[in-house]
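Bug #77: duplicate submission created two jobs. Keeping one. Sequence:
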Amino acid sequence: MVGCTARHRCHDPSTGRFRLILRIPITVNPSKVWQRFVPGFGALGGACFDYAMRYQDGPGTQVSIEIAAPADVVWNLASDITLPARFSQELQAVSWISRSEPVQPGDSFVGRNENPYIGSWETTSIITEVAPGRSFAWRIGDADEPSARWRFDIEDRGGAVMLTQSVRVGPGPSGLSPAIEAMPDKEERIVARRLDDLRTNMEANLAGIKELAEAAEG
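Kept job's structure:
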């Protein structure tokens, strides 16, 4: 991602488009999704964008935070799959389906989510990258066409680290797909609204990791 100048959109000059995120469950009530994510349904505002933002292009976003703690301490927290449920307004619980010791690519877990506009749903994730002190990544859904790809990256800055959480969604179908298919002219606004919600939870998660990591060192 390059050219990030706004909270909810990142312009990629290579494609001439803004790259946005989208991750919704497969089994949802489309009318509830539209009420939440489409301006004009209820008293919801919207945003206008200069470039097309298409789910099929694998839109994404990222959040970063500087943490005054060693990389291994931060990585241990970031790779704890159960931790985000403490800080997220949407993710309720996470449990392992299969787990190696230590964790390896191919291990899997299930996440239980809840949203007042969407309902409750579960996602199955597969670990795709494990690099202690540097990165941790997983995908949701099909290996060839996942519905989302998540990761943490850690940059050592000498006495502190920069922790980045990022997500790319698509091209696999998700629960928001029916709403986009039914209202293609509203796709940009649907994606923008979802981006705001998801980014808010990512920011809360990183703030929580920072607090725990720095407290452990203090």
